[in-house]
Design goal:
heterodimer; A: alpha+beta; 5-stranded mixed sheet; 5 helices; 9 strands; elongated; B: mainly alpha; 9 helices; globular; disordered N terminus
Chain lengths: ~220, ~190
């Protein structure tokens, strides 16, 4: 009786299995897994990290994890500190002067300090991701250099009534772009542009878009 | 399932994941593992996903592939990965089935996918009966009666003792005898 059941199970399972062929062929399935493996391997540092973390005993894995966490924290700290240290010289000085002017002028004193308009604030592509402060009436100049290898689009203000565009331009040959904006009303907005590669005819060319954005806080 | 021979180990370890080794594993075990997973899951379409996932987990990175290549019996390692993934999926599916039963008044049998050629009636009856078993019993039955594995290998694959395998198989046989016996009585 037990043998009969076992025979029945063997025959039934075998017949059911042989009635099914995988829809995907073995070589296609292997290709998919290998593509996935190569994508992993291309991640910067992933393979080195995998080799360091995985094969060792638990203690080594923990130590490696701590090292990685420390490195990530250090990079994050640098990025947090970066806004004040990496702002271009012109932007830094202008921001300082704007802040000083603001503290001197008090509230509601208008665009000028002692009859003088604050100097224009100049930002370049190195100020990407920064936040700058402008006083109402102050001018923001954006200068983006393509260096012949990438083409910047004309910088745009996200709120034209708050930060009015007075002149923008983009040179398709050199890739440079510039824009001048005047702060009209208090608030916060963004100025953005993007760069694409200048591709010589008949050559392989990377297809990328480099975004550039700054946040502009306008104060009275 | 086909047994791994020395040729499975692959000579080409130069690629990012020992490509020759991985291709060799697929060539030797893909179909067998898909069928094994299909019988455990009762769903041959989902079986392919599970086997792909097992391959990704065991040799989806260069370091993992290198470790697998160093094993004497990489096929056993792969089979264990497939069976474990099947059991995980069955557990998840049983939760879904319970929710579906409450929400849509639908049973697992209604939702299990079937693909490929129609199975012969006897095979259909046997697989339906096997599908009604709990996940671990189901895996044990397929490994015992489809793969023809000894109880010690089944224990190693399922990560339990030989005694547990014996008791699981005994319970499964009792359930299957009742189910298939009842059918035969009904048919006759």
């Amino acid at each position: 009786m037990a043998d009969e059941l076992e025979d029945r199970l063997r025959r039934g399972l075998s017949a059911a299995a042989s009635a099914h062929e995988p829809a995907l062929r073995a070589d296609a399935a292997a290709e998919a897994v290998l593509r996935g493996a190569q994508a992993h391997a291309r991640r910067p540092g992933w393979d080195r990290l995998g080799a360091a973390v995985r094969p060792g005993p638990a203690r080594n894995r923990l130590l490696a994890g701590l090292v990685v966490t420390g490195a990530v924290a250090a990079v994050a700290a640098l990025l947090v500190v970066r806004p004040s240290t990496n702002l271009s010289t012109a932007a830094r000085s202008a921001r300082t002067s704007a802040g000083a002017a603001h503290s001197l002028s008090g509230s509601g004193s208008g665009a000028s300090v002692g009859g003088q308009t604050p100097p224009p604030l100049v930002v370049t592509q190195t100020d990407r991701g920064q936040t700058v402060s402008l006083r109402v009436g102050q001018t923001l100049e954006v200068r983006l250099s393509g260096g012949g290898s990438q083409r910047w689009s004309e910088p745009r203000s996200a709120a034209a009534t708050m930060l009015e565009e007075t002149a923008t331009s983009a040179n398709s040959t050199t890739g440079d772009a510039s824009g001048t904006f005047v702060a009209r009303t208090p608030g916060s907005t963004r100025v953005s542009s993007d760069a694409r590669p200048i591709c010589p005819a008949g050559q392989a060319c990377p297809d990328f878009v480099r975004l550039w954005t700054i946040t502009v806080d306008v104060v009275r | 399932m086909e047994r791994a021979g020395p040729s499975d180990r692959g000579d080409d370890q130069t690629g990012p994941a020992g490509e020759g080794f991985v291709r060799g594993l697929f060539g030797a075990h893909w179909v067998g593992l898909c069928r094994l997973a299909g019988l455990i899951l009762g769903d041959f379409a989902a079986a392919e996903e599970v086997v792909q996932e097992a391959f990704m987990k065991t040799c989806g990175t260069p370091s993992a592939a290198a470790r697998l290549a160093q094993l004497d019996r990489s096929d056993l390692y792969l089979r264990t990965a497939v069976v474990n993934l099947c059991r995980s999926r069955l557990r998840r599916r049983s939760v879904e089935a319970r929710v579906n039963a409450i929400t849509f008044r639908r049973s697992e049998a209604d939702t299990a996918g079937v693909s490929g050629r129609p199975e012969p009636d006897e095979a259909k009856r046997v697989t339906a009966a096997v599908r009604s078993l709990p996940p671990r019993q189901r895996a044990a039955v397929v490994l015992r009666y489809y793969e023809d594995l000894p109880e010690a290998d089944i224990a190693r694959t399922l990560g339990c003792s030989v005694g547990t395998v014996k008791s699981q198989l005994a319970k499964a046989r009792a359930s299957l005898a009742r189910l298939l016996g009842e059918e035969r009585t009904t048919d006759g």
